[in-house]
Amino acid sequence: MSTAPVIPTGPLHDLDDWDDFLEGRYKEGKSESEFRQYDATATPGVAEFYRLNHENQTVDYVLEKEKAYFSLKKGQKTIWEAAEFLNTLVDDSDPDTDLTQIEHLLQTSEAIRRDGHPRWMVLTGFIHDLGKCLCLYGEPQWGVVGDTFPVGCAWSKDIVFPEYFANNPDRHNTLYQSKYGIYEPKCGLENLHMSFGHDGYIGEVMKNYLRDESLYMLRFHSFYPWHRHGAYDHLCNDKDRAMLEWVLKFNQYDLYSKGHTKPNIVELKPYYDDLFAEFLPPTLAW
Ligand SMILES: [Fe+2]
Ligand SMILES: [Fe+2]
Protein backbone atom coordinates (compact mmCIF):
# COMPACT_ATOMS: atom_id res chain seq x y z
CA MET A 1 0.00 0.00 0.00
CA SER A 2 1.48 3.37 -0.89
CA THR A 3 -0.32 5.75 1.41
CA ALA A 4 1.57 8.94 2.27
CA PRO A 5 2.88 9.10 5.85
CA VAL A 6 0.74 11.00 8.33
CA ILE A 7 2.15 12.77 11.35
CA PRO A 8 -0.58 13.13 13.98
CA THR A 9 -1.05 16.65 15.27
CA GLY A 10 -1.92 17.41 18.86
CA PRO A 11 -0.26 17.94 22.22
CA LEU A 12 1.44 14.52 22.13
CA HIS A 13 4.63 14.26 20.12
CA ASP A 14 3.28 10.91 18.94
CA LEU A 15 0.73 8.39 20.20
CA ASP A 16 3.41 6.38 21.98
CA ASP A 17 3.91 9.27 24.42
CA TRP A 18 0.71 8.14 26.07
CA ASP A 19 1.94 4.53 26.32
CA ASP A 20 5.22 5.73 27.79
CA PHE A 21 3.35 7.79 30.37
CA LEU A 22 1.29 4.71 31.34
CA GLU A 23 4.40 2.61 31.68
CA GLY A 24 5.91 5.16 34.06
CA ARG A 25 2.66 5.44 36.00
CA TYR A 26 2.45 1.71 36.60
CA LYS A 27 6.14 0.93 37.04
CA GLU A 28 6.32 -2.41 38.77
CA GLY A 29 6.50 -2.00 42.52
CA LYS A 30 5.00 1.50 42.49
CA SER A 31 2.41 2.03 45.22
CA GLU A 32 -1.08 3.44 44.78
CA SER A 33 -0.05 6.71 46.43
CA GLU A 34 3.00 7.06 44.20
CA PHE A 35 0.71 6.50 41.22
CA ARG A 36 -1.10 9.69 42.19
CA GLN A 37 2.09 11.73 42.09
CA TYR A 38 2.22 12.44 38.40
CA ASP A 39 2.67 16.00 37.70
CA ALA A 40 1.49 18.17 34.88
CA THR A 41 4.67 20.24 34.77
CA ALA A 42 6.88 17.19 34.13
CA THR A 43 4.87 16.07 31.12
CA PRO A 44 2.98 19.13 29.84
CA GLY A 45 2.08 17.52 26.50
CA VAL A 46 0.49 14.53 28.22
CA ALA A 47 -1.37 16.76 30.69
CA GLU A 48 -2.74 18.90 27.86
CA PHE A 49 -3.76 15.74 26.03
CA TYR A 50 -5.77 14.54 29.08
CA ARG A 51 -7.33 17.98 29.52
CA LEU A 52 -8.68 17.82 25.97
CA ASN A 53 -9.80 14.20 26.45
CA HIS A 54 -11.65 14.87 29.69
CA GLU A 55 -13.31 18.05 28.44
CA ASN A 56 -14.52 16.63 25.16
CA GLN A 57 -15.55 13.01 25.86
CA THR A 58 -19.24 13.69 26.50
CA VAL A 59 -22.29 11.43 26.05
CA ASP A 60 -23.20 13.29 22.85
CA TYR A 61 -19.69 13.00 21.45
CA VAL A 62 -19.48 9.26 22.19
CA LEU A 63 -22.88 8.50 20.66
CA GLU A 64 -21.97 10.44 17.53
CA LYS A 65 -18.65 8.59 17.13
CA GLU A 66 -20.24 5.18 17.79
CA LYS A 67 -22.74 5.95 15.06
CA ALA A 68 -20.00 7.01 12.66
CA TYR A 69 -17.63 4.08 13.25
CA PHE A 70 -19.44 1.10 14.76
CA SER A 71 -21.34 0.49 11.52
CA LEU A 72 -17.93 -0.41 9.98
CA LYS A 73 -18.29 1.49 6.72
CA LYS A 74 -14.62 2.31 6.18
CA GLY A 75 -14.04 -0.56 3.79
CA GLN A 76 -12.69 -4.12 3.76
CA LYS A 77 -9.12 -4.85 4.74
CA THR A 78 -7.02 -7.86 5.66
CA ILE A 79 -5.12 -7.72 8.95
CA TRP A 80 -1.85 -7.06 7.11
CA GLU A 81 -3.48 -4.27 5.12
CA ALA A 82 -4.84 -2.73 8.31
CA ALA A 83 -1.40 -2.99 9.91
CA GLU A 84 0.30 -1.42 6.89
CA PHE A 85 -2.30 1.33 6.89
CA LEU A 86 -1.52 2.00 10.56
CA ASN A 87 2.17 2.04 9.66
CA THR A 88 1.60 5.21 7.64
CA LEU A 89 1.12 6.92 10.99
CA VAL A 90 4.61 8.03 11.90
CA ASP A 91 6.12 10.35 14.44
CA ASP A 92 8.40 13.16 13.40
CA SER A 93 11.44 11.94 15.33
CA ASP A 94 14.17 9.75 13.85
CA PRO A 95 12.54 7.07 11.65
CA ASP A 96 15.74 4.97 11.74
CA THR A 97 15.73 4.34 15.48
CA ASP A 98 12.01 4.35 16.21
CA LEU A 99 10.02 1.19 15.74
CA THR A 100 7.16 1.20 13.28
CA GLN A 101 3.60 0.48 14.42
CA ILE A 102 3.78 -3.07 12.99
CA GLU A 103 7.00 -3.69 14.91
CA HIS A 104 5.32 -2.54 18.12
CA LEU A 105 2.40 -4.89 17.50
CA LEU A 106 4.77 -7.79 16.89
CA GLN A 107 6.68 -7.07 20.09
CA THR A 108 3.48 -7.41 22.09
CA SER A 109 2.29 -10.57 20.32
CA GLU A 110 5.73 -12.21 20.31
CA ALA A 111 6.12 -11.62 24.05
CA ILE A 112 2.75 -13.35 24.59
CA ARG A 113 3.79 -16.20 22.31
CA ARG A 114 7.15 -16.67 24.09
CA ASP A 115 5.31 -17.15 27.39
CA GLY A 116 3.27 -20.00 25.93
CA HIS A 117 -0.15 -18.37 25.99
CA PRO A 118 -2.98 -19.63 23.73
CA ARG A 119 -2.90 -18.71 20.07
CA TRP A 120 -5.99 -16.53 20.32
CA MET A 121 -4.13 -14.39 22.85
CA VAL A 122 -1.12 -14.02 20.54
CA LEU A 123 -3.55 -12.85 17.87
CA THR A 124 -5.12 -10.41 20.33
CA GLY A 125 -1.68 -8.98 21.06
CA PHE A 126 -1.06 -8.33 17.39
CA ILE A 127 -4.41 -6.66 16.67
CA HIS A 128 -5.09 -4.81 19.93
CA ASP A 129 -3.88 -1.39 18.73
CA LEU A 130 -5.00 -1.55 15.10
CA GLY A 131 -7.87 0.79 16.03
CA LYS A 132 -5.33 3.60 16.26
CA CYS A 133 -5.99 4.01 12.53
CA LEU A 134 -8.79 6.31 13.75
CA CYS A 135 -6.06 8.98 13.67
CA LEU A 136 -5.76 8.40 9.94
CA TYR A 137 -9.49 8.98 9.55
CA GLY A 138 -8.90 12.42 11.05
CA GLU A 139 -9.83 11.78 14.69
CA PRO A 140 -7.86 13.85 17.23
CA GLN A 141 -5.30 12.17 19.52
CA TRP A 142 -7.58 12.61 22.55
CA GLY A 143 -10.33 10.69 20.69
CA VAL A 144 -8.06 7.75 19.80
CA VAL A 145 -5.87 6.98 22.80
CA GLY A 146 -5.98 7.71 26.52
CA ASP A 147 -7.41 5.85 29.51
CA THR A 148 -11.07 5.09 28.91
CA PHE A 149 -14.09 5.46 31.23
CA PRO A 150 -17.86 5.17 30.90
CA VAL A 151 -19.78 8.31 29.96
CA GLY A 152 -23.31 9.07 31.21
CA CYS A 153 -22.57 8.35 34.88
CA ALA A 154 -20.41 9.88 37.60
CA TRP A 155 -16.69 9.98 36.78
CA SER A 156 -14.55 7.90 39.12
CA LYS A 157 -11.86 9.62 41.14
CA ASP A 158 -9.60 6.84 39.87
CA ILE A 159 -9.49 8.35 36.40
CA VAL A 160 -6.13 10.04 35.89
CA PHE A 161 -6.25 13.88 36.08
CA PRO A 162 -9.87 13.95 37.36
CA GLU A 163 -9.65 17.73 37.79
CA TYR A 164 -9.83 18.12 34.02
CA PHE A 165 -13.48 17.07 34.05
CA ALA A 166 -14.30 20.52 35.45
CA ASN A 167 -14.99 21.86 31.98
CA ASN A 168 -16.81 18.82 30.56
CA PRO A 169 -20.37 19.95 29.65
CA ASP A 170 -21.83 16.71 31.14
CA ARG A 171 -20.93 18.14 34.54
CA HIS A 172 -24.18 20.13 34.39
CA ASN A 173 -26.42 17.11 33.75
CA THR A 174 -27.62 15.69 37.08
CA LEU A 175 -28.48 12.28 35.62
CA TYR A 176 -24.99 11.93 34.10
CA GLN A 177 -23.47 12.96 37.41
CA SER A 178 -25.31 10.32 39.45
CA LYS A 179 -23.72 7.03 40.53
CA TYR A 180 -25.50 4.84 37.96
CA GLY A 181 -26.36 7.60 35.51
CA ILE A 182 -28.07 6.25 32.39
CA TYR A 183 -27.30 2.63 33.40
CA GLU A 184 -28.84 -0.07 35.60
CA PRO A 185 -26.90 -1.44 38.58
CA LYS A 186 -24.67 -4.40 37.54
CA CYS A 187 -25.67 -3.96 33.89
CA GLY A 188 -22.28 -5.23 32.68
CA LEU A 189 -19.39 -3.43 31.01
CA GLU A 190 -20.53 -4.51 27.57
CA ASN A 191 -23.62 -2.35 27.99
CA LEU A 192 -21.74 0.85 28.81
CA HIS A 193 -20.89 3.65 26.45
CA MET A 194 -17.17 4.01 26.96
CA SER A 195 -15.25 7.17 26.12
CA PHE A 196 -14.46 6.81 22.42
CA GLY A 197 -11.13 5.50 21.23
CA HIS A 198 -9.11 2.76 19.55
CA ASP A 199 -10.23 0.06 22.03
CA GLY A 200 -13.94 0.23 21.34
CA TYR A 201 -13.38 0.46 17.61
CA ILE A 202 -11.19 -2.66 17.31
CA GLY A 203 -13.63 -4.49 19.60
CA GLU A 204 -16.43 -3.78 17.11
CA VAL A 205 -14.34 -4.90 14.13
CA MET A 206 -13.59 -8.22 15.85
CA LYS A 207 -16.82 -8.87 17.74
CA ASN A 208 -18.18 -11.63 15.50
CA TYR A 209 -14.95 -13.61 15.39
CA LEU A 210 -13.19 -13.78 18.72
CA ARG A 211 -13.97 -15.23 22.14
CA ASP A 212 -15.12 -13.09 25.05
CA GLU A 213 -11.71 -13.10 26.76
CA SER A 214 -10.16 -11.63 23.64
CA LEU A 215 -12.95 -9.09 23.12
CA TYR A 216 -12.59 -7.90 26.71
CA MET A 217 -8.85 -7.45 26.19
CA LEU A 218 -9.55 -5.42 23.07
CA ARG A 219 -12.43 -3.35 24.41
CA PHE A 220 -11.17 -2.62 27.88
CA HIS A 221 -7.37 -2.66 27.69
CA SER A 222 -7.24 1.11 28.34
CA PHE A 223 -9.94 1.03 31.05
CA TYR A 224 -7.33 1.50 33.78
CA PRO A 225 -9.80 2.86 36.38
CA TRP A 226 -11.50 -0.57 36.26
CA HIS A 227 -8.73 -3.10 35.69
CA ARG A 228 -6.07 -1.39 37.79
CA HIS A 229 -8.07 0.46 40.43
CA GLY A 230 -11.28 -1.55 40.84
CA ALA A 231 -13.54 1.39 39.96
CA TYR A 232 -17.07 0.97 38.57
CA ASP A 233 -17.65 -2.37 40.28
CA HIS A 234 -21.28 -1.27 40.86
CA LEU A 235 -21.82 -1.51 37.10
CA CYS A 236 -20.09 -4.88 36.71
CA ASN A 237 -21.73 -8.28 36.42
CA ASP A 238 -20.27 -11.75 37.06
CA LYS A 239 -19.00 -12.05 33.50
CA ASP A 240 -16.97 -8.84 33.88
CA ARG A 241 -15.43 -10.13 37.08
CA ALA A 242 -14.52 -13.43 35.39
CA MET A 243 -12.94 -11.58 32.46
CA LEU A 244 -10.89 -9.24 34.63
CA GLU A 245 -8.08 -11.75 35.17
CA TRP A 246 -7.59 -12.04 31.41
CA VAL A 247 -7.53 -8.28 30.92
CA LEU A 248 -4.90 -8.03 33.67
CA LYS A 249 -2.86 -10.83 32.12
CA PHE A 250 -2.93 -8.97 28.84
CA ASN A 251 -2.07 -5.63 30.43
CA GLN A 252 1.38 -6.89 31.47
CA TYR A 253 2.27 -7.32 27.82
CA ASP A 254 0.67 -4.08 26.71
CA LEU A 255 2.67 -2.11 29.27
CA TYR A 256 5.99 -3.86 29.49
CA SER A 257 6.75 -5.68 26.24
CA LYS A 258 8.38 -2.77 24.43
CA GLY A 259 12.02 -3.19 23.59
CA HIS A 260 14.39 -1.78 21.02
CA THR A 261 15.07 -4.89 18.98
CA LYS A 262 13.24 -4.91 15.69
CA PRO A 263 11.19 -8.09 15.10
CA ASN A 264 11.97 -9.77 11.79
CA ILE A 265 8.71 -9.37 9.89
CA VAL A 266 9.73 -11.53 6.91
CA GLU A 267 10.63 -14.43 9.19
CA LEU A 268 7.49 -14.09 11.31
CA LYS A 269 4.99 -13.60 8.48
CA PRO A 270 4.16 -17.29 7.80
CA TYR A 271 3.27 -17.89 11.46
CA TYR A 272 0.96 -14.87 11.48
CA ASP A 273 -0.62 -15.76 8.14
CA ASP A 274 -1.66 -19.09 9.69
CA LEU A 275 -2.78 -17.41 12.91
CA PHE A 276 -5.03 -14.90 11.12
CA ALA A 277 -6.49 -17.66 8.93
CA GLU A 278 -7.28 -19.81 11.96
CA PHE A 279 -9.53 -17.23 13.60
CA LEU A 280 -10.54 -14.60 11.06
CA PRO A 281 -12.02 -14.34 7.58
CA PRO A 282 -9.59 -13.22 4.84
CA THR A 283 -10.87 -9.64 4.94
CA LEU A 284 -12.80 -7.76 7.61
CA ALA A 285 -15.09 -4.75 7.58
CA TRP A 286 -13.44 -1.71 9.20
FE1 LIG B 1 -4.06 0.32 23.08
FE1 LIG C 1 -1.00 -1.21 23.21
The percentage of residues in β strands lies in under 5%
* Strand numbers in spatial order across the main sheet: 1-2
Number of strands: 2
What is the string of helix and strand elements? Answer: HHHHEHHHHHHHHE
By secondary-structure content and strand pairing, the structural class works out as: mainly alpha
Count up the helices: 12
Subcellular location: Cytoplasm
Pfam families: MIOX (PF05153)
EC number: 1.13.99.1
GO molecular function, one term: inositol oxygenase activity
Would you give an account of this structure?
- This protein has one domain.
- 44% of the residues lie in helices and 1% in strands.
- It is built from 12 helices and 2 strands.
- It has a two-stranded antiparallel ribbon with strand order 1-2.
- Helix 7 packs parallel to helix 9 and helix 8 runs antiparallel to helix 9.
- The protein is globular and about 55 Å long.
- The mean pLDDT is 91.
- It binds fe (ii) ion (FE2) (2 copies).
- One fe (ii) ion binds next to loops.
